[in-house]
Amino acid sequence: MANTAVASNTPFMWEGTDRNGKKIKGKSLATDEATVRADLRRQGVVPTRIKKQSKGLFSGGGTITSGDISIFSRQLATMLAAGIPLVQAFEIVGNGHENAAMQKLILSIKADVEGGSSLAEALSKQPLYFDDLFVNLVESGEQAGALESLLDKIATYKEKTEAIKKKIKKALTYPAAVLVVAFVVTTILLIFVIPSFEDLFKGFGADLPTFTRMVIDLSAFVREKGFFIVVIVSGAVGTFLYFKKRSRPMRHFLDRMMLKFPIIGPILQKASIARYSRTLSTMFAAGVPLVEALESVAGATGNIVYETGVMQMRDEVATGQRLQQAMENTDLFPNMVIQMIAVGEESGSLDEMSGKVADFYEADVDDAVDNLSSLLEPMIMAILGVLVGGLVVAMYLPIFKLGAVV
C-alpha cells in the first residue's frame, strides 16, 4: 500500500498567491496537475504556475537509508519545537531534501496528514521506513499532547542507534576492505606477473627452489581454474546470503557464533546491550507499558540471539516476573546491567537507569572500536607483507641462488 502511494504520486513545483496577495511557491505530491490545483485552492492559494518536477541528468530515484530517517526525525522535531505547524514542517523538510526518494516519501506523508490522517497513521503506511517502535512513540505523543517532546526523544534515539551502527560497520568494514585489496593484488600478481618470471626461469637450466616452484604452480592453477573458482565462490556466497536472509535458524546460529568470535564478539554484545537499553529507556519514558515496550525493544537489538532473549523476557514479565529476574534468566546480560535495571525498577526510574546503561555501553563501544582499529592496523600490514612480500621473495630466490653460484 505504502509503496504504491509513493510510486504513483509525482512532485509538482508551483507558484501562486495567498489570501493576502503575497507571492508564494512550493512543492506538492499528487497524481496529476488538477489535483494539485484543487489542493492549493482549498488552502486559499491561487496557483499561477504548476509544473511537474523534472529529473536532472544525473538525478535518479535515490534510496532511503536509516540515516535519512534519523535526519528527518531531528528536522521535524526541531521545527515543531519552533512552533511551525506540522503540515508546513513537512513541506519545508520535503522541499529542501536533495534525495528524490526521501522527498517523495515526506510529501506523501504530508498528503496523508492533510487528508485527515494522524501522523502515526500516515507513518504506519510506510512500514519499510518507519517501524512499529517509531509509530508507537509518535502515537503516544499525539495521544498525550506531547508530540514535540516525543519526536525529540525519537530523534535522539535514532541518532544514538545510527552512531552505534556506524561504529560497528567501521569495525567490520575496514579489515574486510583491506583484505579484499590484498586478495586482488595477490591475484593480479599470480595471473600477470608470475608468468613473466616463469619464462625467465626456464632459461636458467637449473632446479628452482621449492618455494618458488610452489608459487609458480599456484599461478598456473589460478590461470587455468580461475574462472571455475570464481563461479564456485560466487555461487557459495550467493547461497549463503540467500539462506542467511530467509532462514531464522541459520541467522540465529551465525549471530550466536559472531558473539563468541574473539575481539569482534564483545563489541557486538556491547552494541546489542546499548541498543536494548536505549530503546527501553525511550519507550518507557514515553509511557509505553513495559510488556508492550519489550516487543519493540526486541527488534531493535540488532542481533537475533538478543531478540529471542528479549521476547522470552516479555513473556515472563507478562506473567508477573520482575524485569531484573527475566534478564537474569536469559544469561545474556552482565551483572552490572542487571543490577542497574533492578535499581531502576525499585526506585521507579527505569527509563533513567536504562539511559545510563545505554550511555555507558555506547561509550564502551566507541572505545572498543578505536582500540580494535589500533590493534588491526599492524596485523593487517603484517598480512599484506606476508602475501605480497612472499610472492616477491619467491620470484627473487632463483636470482639470489644464481648470483651465489656465480
What does this structure look like?
The longest helix has 56 residues, at 350-405. Helix content is 76%, strand content 6%. It starts with a helix and ends with a helix. α4 runs antiparallel to α5 (100-114) and α8 runs parallel beside α16 (350-405). The chain is mainly alpha-helical and 406 residues long. A three-stranded antiparallel beta sheet has the order 2-1-3.
Tags for this entry?
16 helices, mainly alpha, flat, 406 residues, 3-stranded antiparallel beta sheet
For the largest beta sheet, what order do the strands appear in spatially? 2-1-3
The structural class is mainly alpha
Cα radius of gyration in angstroms: 29 Å
Total beta-strand segments: 3
Query: Could you list the spans in which at least 5 consecutive residues all have pLDDT below 50?
Result: 1-8, 55-60
- What portion of residues belong to β-strands? 5-15%
Name the helicity range.
over 70%
How far apart the termini lie comes to 81 Å
Mean pLDDT: 82
Give a quick account of the main beta sheet: strands, pairing sense, barrel closure: 3 strands, antiparallel
Tally of DSSP helical segments: 16
Overall morphology: flat
Helix and strand run: HEEHEHHHHHHHHHHHHHH
